[in-house]
Amino acid sequence: MANAEPRWLRYTLTAIALAFLFLFLALPLLAVFAEAFAGGGSAFFAALADPEALSAIGLTLFIAIFVLPFNVAIGICAAWAIAKFDFRGKSLLITLIDLPFAVSPVVVGLVFLLIFGAQGLFGQWLSAHDIKIVFALPGMVLVTLFITFPFVARELIPLMQAQGKDEEEAAISLGATGWQMFLRVTLPNIKWGLLYGVILANARAMGEFGAVSVVSGHIRGQTNTLPLHVEILYNEYNAVGAFASASVLALLALVTLVAKTLVEWQMRRETEMLDTALLPEKVNQESGIPS
Amino acid sequence: MSIQICGVGKKFGNFVALDNIELDIPTGELVALLGPSGCGKTTLLRIIAGMETADSGHVKFAGEEATHLHARERQVGFVFQHYALFRHMSVFENVAFGLRVKPRSERPPEAEIRRRVMDLLKLVQLDWLAERFPSQLSGGQRQRIALARALAVEPKVLLLDEPFGALDTKVRKELRRWLRRLHDEMHISSVFVTHDQEEALEVADRVVVMNQGRVEQIGTPDEVYSNPASPFVYQFLGNVNVFHSRLHGHWADVGRDVAGDGAAKTPADGEAMAFVRPHDIDIERGPVVGGLEATVQDVHAIGPLVRVELAHDSELIEVELTRERATVLELNKGQRVWLKPRQVKVFSVAEAALEEHGSGI
Amino acid sequence: MKRVLPGFGLSLGCTIVYLSLLVLLPLSGLAFKSSSLDWSQLWAIASGERALASYRVTFGASLLAALINALFGLIVAWVLVRYRFPGKRLVDSLVDLPFALPTAVAGITLATLYAGNGWVGRHLEPLGIKVAFTPLGIVVALTFISLPFVVRTLQPVIEDIEPEIEEAAATLGASRLQTFMRVILPGVFPALLTGSTLAFSRAVGEYGSVIFIAGNMPLISEITPLLIISKLEQYDVVGATALAGVMLVISFALLLGVNALQWWAANRHHGKHAVSL
User: Fold this and answer.
1) Predicted ipTM?
2) Residues whose CB falls within 8 Å of the CB of residue B242, separated by 6 or more in sequence, listed in order
3) At what angle do helices A137-148 and A187-207 cross, to 10 degrees?
4) Contact B112, B161 (CB under 8 A)
């Protein structure tokens, strides 16, 4: 075979790759759980049963559950407009959708502070009406929306572009209304891509640290998410507590990876099915037309 | 239902896709829109279906204005080039789709839907595939499911975009005969788009030859083939030998004698081009009046025909003979012979140049 | 113009409104705030000694991390696409861990691993190598968080290389190394560059994982995002804004750079083709 390296080289390269991945990925993952259980199982569960830890978990879940529907709705909107229609400024719009990925989380936090903070653009108006956005839940939700905005759209745009408009046009020409077309044709076709985007957005929403940290105000039991809780405990030299909470987040990461892999397999299977299906037919006995 | 297309024009940016199209499709006819890729035939089909909006002009169904009707209100059955079957639905659900999305008041009961879908699947001879998914079907089967799906809503007009384009030759031939029979049974006005002249000539009642956004000729398959209205149609439908009358004024004269109706249009000598089909030329071993002297270059037997390549001056001429005639002639390479056309059509050079420019054929 | 498919106006309208309110308005707020400040004052903050040192640390460590990932990412992507070994699918899934693991968790874990008494640091300390609480620790953290970019950008490109191309090179007498250097590498180079730029761009803005392992000594191991935070904690909004402005401009430049790279990767063959015609 022309496209094969000598055996020693294949083994060397594989060994280098695996060693690199072990050192940078597997070892940290193992360390999280090892540290979490360093003080024994009871210390681990005591750390998690702490009211502050529980409230942090609750807040993290709340933010994620609140944010995801927005991501889904706007992701579908953006992908629908971009993938199915031609209009001027489309590539600019695609670039703008990518923007939140490019901006440092700390800068994201800061810009919301500049707008909604006490000395910010709307600061006076907000305090006059007794509305608190930064150093409170609304600010944390807003930065999370900002940070997670691209995930669903970026997943759906290439998928919907690849699927083309034919099926939707067929549905319309068969008399379907826009809503019927969306629910019966578009949504079933994009469901795996959508789920994939949601999984990634969820992981980011639950794990975001920098941006949330700037606007949270770190009020224990009130505006502390789980990642912020980890930081506080760690800085107080409560290693077991910090790693107990961290292990919950690491577990979430593992669940994310598993779910992501399953969805990837599902998507791959469907595209492979389509690919084989699109091969030109060789045998015509199948066509079954009596001549 | 009849279709009238009045002065329809469409531009994509600077590209003129359709230029003032006039076309009448009578009820019950099977019409082919034939032309090279980019000639605007698919755009015209999509405008009839309401999938594309014309920049100007009108589309009328049975004499009634339909230009502003939405695709879903036109009662048009559309079969997509790549079928556009719903990949996540079974064959049955694909065909049932049009019935299921009807407003509740018009929607037939479930039993009725079942019956109609199964009837249609029987009509396209695929009722045994009802529970399969599109990805499990062959191309020809998908094509017929797409047709059944389009027929389920009882359309007044059936539109097919390159219906056999993605199939291999043998399946394609079977399917187009089958489509013809189906059309004769259902008698629904149908329009299909194709770039394959053989397909258009074999299947359609009438052929609309299109080029560069314009209609070149409308006629029965026999009319467009035997009596092409323009050099483009001549060249697009089958092989043709082109003679420049500056060199072969002689043949242009022959053309005038043979093709009586062409004579009226024939301009002065020196500006005309003569078109002769390879099978409209006879070969004689000895000199004939009005014949053209040529040398045999090559002789190929292709199935029932014998194709002879001849050189006259520096030009190559193709002639097709029957096997019997070739046996009688006993042609050899390098032999001198005389050519006599049975039918010649003459166009002015200006006309021909206009047609050839940018046609890409 | 009338369109057949519904919802164009609605979907585009919603997208633009949402994008404007959530992303563009806040970002322009930063521009607005900076413009209300004195330019010379802004410049003085953005080019102060501590700021300059933080740029050096941030960009130096990010560049190093991107280079490490370019080299090892290429090897990992190659091995994952071309070779078979037990547990390959598991390893492949694990590559995305840095995307899934919250940065704070990564930060405290890496700090613990590389500290003098940690699993890794314990073995490095006797060799005189200190990682945690030094600039080297920043490189480690940034390598971790930006690891998937190069691998994930390269994988599909390596999958798409037609075996015939390598076979053709081999039949023409090229050695395996020559084939790699002259045929394969030029083909994957744009993707390698794109992946590395993405990794660099992500590393520059990173905060959560770095602060735990960096030691955060001003002028030595203080990254720019941390400097912004410490200015904020001192209620120095002006200073934070100035630094954030610098970061934002660089983010835009990198985003445009990535877009240009992707455009180049997609179009260069067409370009060459046209020229050769």
Assistant:
1) 0.89
2) B231, B235, B273, B274, B275, B352
3) 130
4) no
Integer CA distances (angstroms), B316 to B176, B319, B321, in order: 35, 10, 16
pLDDT under 70 in chain B at which residues? 244-271, 349-361
Q: Which residue has 């230009």 as its token pair?
A: B67
d(CA A25, CA B301): 71
**Where residue A163 sits, what CATH number does that domain have?**
1.10.3720.10
Q: Is C134 in contact with C215 (CB distance < 8 Å)? A: yes
- Partner-chain contact A207 C105, CB within 8 Å: yes
Q: Where do the domains of chain C lie, and which CATH numbers do they carry? A: 39-276 (1.10.3720.10)
- Give the closest-approach CA distance of B166 to chain A in angstroms: 7
Which residue in this structure is represented by tokens 């209620």? C235
Judge whether A64 and A205 are in contact, CB under 8 Å.
Answer: yes
Range of the domain at A226: 32-268
Task: Characterize the bridge pairing of strands B30-34 and B189-194.
Answer: parallel
C→B contacts (Cβ < 8 Å), by residue, are: 1-4
> Is B150 an interface residue toward A (CB < 8 Å)?
yes
**C225 and C247 Cβ atoms separated by less than 8 Å:** yes
**What kind and span of H or E run contains C277?**
none
> Rounded to whole angstroms, how far apart are CA atoms B15 and B34?
20
Residue A277 in domain: no
A-chain CB neighbours of B82 within 8 Å are 166
* pLDDT per residue of chain A (291 residues) written in tens, 0 to 9: 445 778 888 999 999 999 999 999 999 999 999 999 988 888 889 888 889 999 999 999 999 999 999 999 999 999 999 999 999 999 899 989 988 988 999 999 999 988 888 777 788 888 888 888 888 899 999 999 999 999 999 999 999 998 889 999 999 999 999 999 999 999 999 999 999 999 999 999 999 999 999 998 777 778 889 999 999 999 999 888 899 999 999 999 999 999 999 999 988 887 777 665 554 443 334 444 443
Tell whether A290 is covered by a domain: no
Strand partners, B194: B34
Angle between helix axes A226-235 and A239-277 (nearest 10 degrees) is: 150
Residues 92-131 of A with CB under 8 A from C: 93, 95-108, 110-115, 117, 119-121
User: What is the end-to-end Cα distance of chain A in Å, rounded?
Assistant: 48
> Rounded to whole angstroms, what are the CA distances from C235 to A113, A119, A213, C28?
12, 11, 15, 21
Q: Which structure tokens are listed for C198?
A: 């993405």
β-pairing, B272-276 vs B281-284, is unpaired
Read off the DSSP letter of residue B162: S
For B70, the 3-state DSSP assignment is coil
Best of A169, A173, A274 to disrupt the B interface (most B CBs within 10 Å) is A173
How many structural domains does chain A have?
1
Return d(Cα B216, Cα B228) in angstroms, integer.
9
Task: For residue C137, give the 3-state DSSP assignment.
Answer: helix
- The angle subtended at Cα B296 by Cα B290 and Cα B298, nearest 5°, is 140
Paired tokens of B16: 């003129």
The full DSSP string for A60-119 is HHHHHHHHHHHHHHHHHHHHHHHHH---TTHHHHHHHHHHHHHS-HHHHHHHHHHHHSTT
DSSP letter string over C159-201?
Answer: HHS-HHHHHHHHHTT--HHHHIIIIIHHHHHHHHHHHHHHHHH
Contact between C152 and C195 (Cβ < 8 Å): yes
Q: What is the DSSP letter of B109?
A: P
β-bridge mates for residue B211, sequence order: B214
**Residues in chain A closer than 8 A to C6 (CB atoms):** 172, 177-178, 181
Six-digit token string for A195: 């789920």
